Structure formats: C-alpha cells, structure tokens
C-alpha cells in the first residue's frame, strides 16, 4: 500500500508531488500527461519567477523538477475510479491501450483539473480535429493565413485571439455577453488590435463544412439576426468542466467541483483535493501551485498521525 497517491500532474499535482518526494514518501503520481491545461495555455505572464513563458515551456519545467526530485510517475494513465477501502483508498486507472492499473494508498490528493466545455451545437463533434479545436497552442499553427473564429470571453479566449492574430489571415471573436471577463491587460491588447474583430451578444448555432469547417452560423441575441461567417478554424474557449466524475467518495458542489477547506481537506479522512477541480473560486496557476503544497503538507501531517 502506498503512503500517498497524487492524481493529476498539472500545477497542483506537481507541487504536491515535489513535497511528497522530498519527504521520501512511498508515493506515486498518476496522470495522463505532465502539465495538463497549463501545457495548453498561451503566454503566461502572471506566474512568479517568469516574466513571460509559454504554457508548454512551463509544463516542461514541471517535468524537470519532478525528475530532479525523483518522483515516481505513472504517465499515460487516466484515473477511472476512486473508492474508500479499509485503511485507505483504491484507485483504478487505464491507459490508451485499456491496460488497467490498481493502486491502494493510505492517503490521496486529487488534482485532476478541468477539461474544456463544449458548445453542444450541430457540427461541433463532426468537425472536431477538422477545423474545431479546444487547444490554440496545440493546433493554432495549422491555421496559418486562414480565417478563424474564437468563441469565448475569458482569459483563454483572449490569449487564443492574441496568438492567432500572429498566425491567421483574420481573427473574429464571438461573445455571448456584452463584455469580456478576462484580465484587463489582455482585454486591452485584444481591443486595441485592429486586426481582431469582436462581436458581442451573439450565440453560436451551427458549424458547417464538407471535409473540413467552412463556416459558423451565429445569432444576435438582441436583434435575432442570423449571420454566417466563413472560417476554416473554430477555437472553442467557453469555459471548463471539472474532471471529477470518476468518484462519488468526495463531496461535490452543483458544478461537480470537490468541496474543500483551506488545507484542501475534503471531509473524508486521508482524502484531499487541490487546484481547479476544487470549489476554490479563482482558477490560476499560482493558486493551484499553492493549493498543491498545502494539500501535500496536510496529507503528510495526516500520515504522521497514522503512524503514532
């Protein structure tokens, strides 16, 4: 039985794993990849220690730090189940080849993060990877000199627009509401860029194409006017859903986020959660990093009390 399992390897999970490894715990970090949503971020300018860094570069530093600390990692595995058992927890994870691993541990830190929210409009599933994408940093370079649309109003959408304006032929941002919801510095950059067109108060209705995307249809919420915008790329940035559906052993709120206290404690002895998968209101890399540290130290205290 492990002392500690850490589920997820973005900012919170990596931070927790560094502290667990330094305490020489019998520990395992389980994750599909290293970096998670951090790796798909564009330019990061608000993480201490880096004036400016790309998300994939930051994820690479995460990996190097884990390796330097000797953290044991099962990479390529997605957690499918977490249940309470006698004296601890059982976690089941599978890889892309459907190979299953079963783990047992005295304590667990859940840091599984979030996944992109979908539009749920006709054509979205059909044209996924054929013009529809949820990762600008992954797929943006494929749309050089093409017309693209960015959907969303938060930081992810703003970062997407700023990246794509350097690559694409034209960039249009469609927003459901009447204003942006991101950081002021990013809003100013987008609104002051003459090559970015912003359309407020519209709802996306349909994505169309043949082999690949050729257009998106949207409706003005105020006038009900429907327009069709010719594009070859649709970049969806309309929010995130917590990766929490693999367990019912932890209290969740209506949004599916794990409910935790200031130390990441879930209310289940030995079970902690950290980062964007929790109900902490502000979803920032620096906050997730701190939460990972807190939950790791709290889990270590719990394990120390078990050994007394």
TrEMBL record:
A GO molecular function held by the record: oxidoreductase activity, acting on a sulfur group of donors, NAD(P) as acceptor
Disulfide bond recorded as keyword: yes
InterPro entries cross-referenced by the UniProt entry: FAD/NAD-bd_sf, FAD/NAD-binding_dom, Ferredoxin-NADP_redctase_2, Pyr_nucl-diS_OxRdtase_2_AS
PROSITE patterns, sorted: PYRIDINE_REDOX_2
Pfam families for this protein: Pyr_redox_2 (PF07992)
Keyword RNA-binding included in the entry's annotation: no
Protein name per UniProt: Thioredoxin reductase
PANTHER family the UniProt entry points to: THIOREDOXIN REDUCTASE 1-RELATED-RELATED
Organism name: Candidatus Magasanikbacteria bacterium GW2011_GWC2_45_8
Keyword field: Disulfide bond, FAD, Flavoprotein, Oxidoreductase, Redox-active center
Ranges where the FAD/NAD(P)-binding domain occurs: 2-292
Superkingdom as given in the UniProt entry: Bacteria
